[in-house]
Amino acid sequence: MKKKLSKKHHYLPRHYLKGFTNNTNGFYIYDKKEDKIFYTSPDAAFFENHLNTVSLPGGGSSDFLEKFYSDIENECWNSLDQIRESNNKIPIDPLDKMNLFLFLLFLHWRLPSNINYAEELTKDFFDKNNKNINYFTLKYNDGKDPPKEVVDVIKNSPAFKKTSKVILPFAPFYEEGWSKRLINNWRFLYAEDEKRWHLVGDNPIVTKGDNDHDSLNCLNEFVFPISGNILLVNTNKPINKDFPPRFVIKFNIAIIERAQRFIACQNKNFLEELLKLYDFHVQHNKTSILITEMFRFLEQ
């Protein structure tokens, strides 16, 4: 009997989302499009039907991308859990940082906000002179290069374009010095009261926006919520100090600004107050400076 294709494909994995739930294993979602708040669980949030279903050239469909993501995630979950159990007194194992970096890269290119850009980058594939993607090559079994006509058919096929989002995440690992950044520039910020104050949204890797669609440099500078009480900060100028509670507000407002549609919080009252603050910025046409101000605050 033919195996039925999976349908509900999470772009934010459920295991990751569990780090933002309350004591009933759920959270409150704000829908920017509908302007409403509702309560749900990680199983029913941050997914799209058939997001990773691929139409095959010979006919039929496959969900091999969904399984591929599951395999990658299963390699990373132990490291994510170790970091979530960490504190500011014990150094984090470099291997756990590497696995987290791998998870972040795959997460970046699978987000709905970046999928179209990943597909656009397929036009640059199989170009030996493109240092960003020249690690991925196309050869016949005898080692010879295929003709341009064959390469163009592959690059322009819908199946290959959709598959590009699991090829691009490997690019930074071919760049010399990537591991030094994890050691020297990454900084984990912990909530002093250990409560889950941080929001998560459908575009949770808050970058400066300069290199979001650059396969090598997309994660050079960012702030990312590891859980509701831990943030990962990566800046060009390494951070060597703690930050006051008001930075949590700046980050959360930036998450709301960066989100395309959905934002989650374990506390409804806190979420509502943050939305009021965000609306204030909307009314005064100041949303464009929110992320810039957040990074400026980090760099002071």
Describe the structure.
37% of the residues lie in helices and 15% in strands. Strand 2 and strand 3 (36-40) form a beta hairpin. The termini are far apart. The strands form four sheets. Strands 3-2-12-8 form a four-stranded antiparallel β-sheet, covered by helices on one side. A four-stranded antiparallel β-sheet has the order 7-11-10-9. The chain has 300 residues and is α+β, with helices and mostly antiparallel strands. The radius of gyration is 20 Å and the shape is globular. The mean pLDDT is 93. It has one domain (8-52, 62-299).
Task: Annotate the secondary structure layout.
Layout: E1 8-10, H1 14-17, E2 27-31, E3 36-40, E4 47-49, E5 54-55, E6 61-62, H2 64-84, H3 94-110, H4 112-120, H5 148-156, H6 158-163, H7 178-184, E7 186-190, E8 200-201, E9 206-207, E10 222-227, E11 230-234, H8 246-258, E12 262-265, H9 268-283, H10 290-299
Antiparallel strand pairs: 1-4, 2-3, 2-12, 5-6, 7-11, 8-12, 9-10, 10-11
Q: What is the number of independent domains?
A: 1
Intertermini distance? 62 Å
**Any idea what the shape is?**
globular
Biggest sheet character: 4 strands, antiparallel
Strand content: 5-15%
- Structural class, by secondary structure, is alpha+beta
Low-pLDDT parts are none
Extended strand count: 12
Radius of gyration: 20 Å
H-E order: EHEEEEEHHHHHHEEEEEHEHH
Q: How are the strands of the biggest sheet laid out side by side?
A: 3-2-12-8
Mean pLDDT: 93
Tally the helices.
Answer: 10
